[in-house]
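We close this part of the discussion by returning to an individual protein. The sequence in question and its structure tokens are set out directly beneath this paragraph:
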Amino acid sequence: MISFQFDRTDTLSWLLIVGLFLMLAVQMWLILRNEALSGQRKALRLVLNGLLWLSLLTYTLRPVWNVTSDTSHALLVSDDVPSDVRQKFSDSLKLKAVVTARTFDGNRFDSVTVLGQEFQPEFLSGLSRQAIRWIPYYATDQLQAIRWKGIVQKGEIQQVTGTLQSSKKQRIKLAYAGRVLDSLDLAEGVATFNLKFPVFTVGRTETELVLDRTPLDTVRFFARSLKPLTYQFILSTPDFESKTLADWLGKNGNSVQMVTTLSRDISNKLTINKATAKPDIIITDPSNAGNVAVKRAIADGKAVLFINLSNPETDCRLINQALGSRWQVRKISNEALISVGTNTGLQALPYSFAANAAQTIIPGYPAAIQRSTGKIGVSLLNETFPLKLSGDSLAYNRFWNAMIAQLQPAASTNSQIEAPVLAGIREQIVVNNVATRSAALTVDKDTIQLTYSPINALSAVGKWRVNSAGWVPAQDSLAVYAEKTGFSTVAKSILVQRYTAAHAADQLRVDSTPRLATVTLPDWVWLVILLVCFTALWVEPKLG
């Protein structure tokens, strides 16, 4: 269909049209009244003048029409991609058109293959008309992906996982205040790492991820403090290990009651921070596995921790018979005691736990938790109090915080969010053990609509968009760190990945109608037409 670019509101345009019609009338009158011309010459001159007039009129009206455009594809390359890599992908994909964000013309291409992730959000938004395929590009020794928990509890195991292209065999480590929390040797090539450590801090925490000697990223998370609980020690004989642990628990604000059997009818009770409720966690030895208080605690969904094992095989059978657990151990050394880790100062019985689906191993330590009606913990460590005596309180705190965190009851309205969190992008927040079932959650003055799980009525998820970068207040005096989208390579990758996923979903909803392009004659064509008309009018009298 042909249309015109004539501006009906412009007075000058109308004056031009009127002038053209007046010119046509004058031309006709002058030719027809010329008696010197024959009838054939008059007809020829009328035709030539008519063609000139029609050309001028058409040029003034500027006709345009729509045609189905040919599909075209381009390789859109970010600025961080080297020229040799560009050429390699261009050759393999057989694409001649290679453009950057500065030279890209959206009207020329129907689809693009995006190579790299160095693009501004505003530019990505401008690709709404094109079909997009994304190919990430990462330099060697550069993070390709990384994830960790944005909110954890003190003592909980923080796990940092990621991927990179290692240029050589080297070590990656996670450090806090110069102290290595965990490390791993990477082979040359694409390598995946998984670093773990028990959280020993409270509040806003920053750790550094280092490859060889080069800092890669800062891992920021918020650590919730442990809720003060009531502990009860049930012991056959008093010992320094349990006494040191009871003092440590009491100094951390917990209520502790120690019950030690001195003889058949005589027992000794020691109370630290007098308790007003039933014990949340019982700490005992295998000889008391059949104790009424221990069995009642498991039946009520509480936790029991067994320490001071002497013969793990016999002790585990005793625990299994009394509580219905499934502990199995196997001997791994003929030594009386074996060292735990490197330079930890800890020793353990020469046994390890057999795998069990309902069992959680405390990373780095010979201790585990099994879940049934309640929680049952077993530690194969020989003694931990020597760490206190030697002044290594940090190592002592690290183990017992990790152990106690696994035994703690679930916190009310426990919020979880995966990191890194990017400012300006919607993130999923998970709320477990919801105290009151509400339709929405208020986080940093934002109202988040919750969707409850059909399987677990106490678990819900919502979408939260953090508007500003930095530490952002969250629910119940918590905080979440939001990174700028243009700060790190991983952040840029997440931005492009989420944009392309959302764009692909939008493309599925778009009707598959042919794409039309508007076409008009270029100015040089009009110039040629007018020159031909004027030349014909100039030559015609000379031919007579």
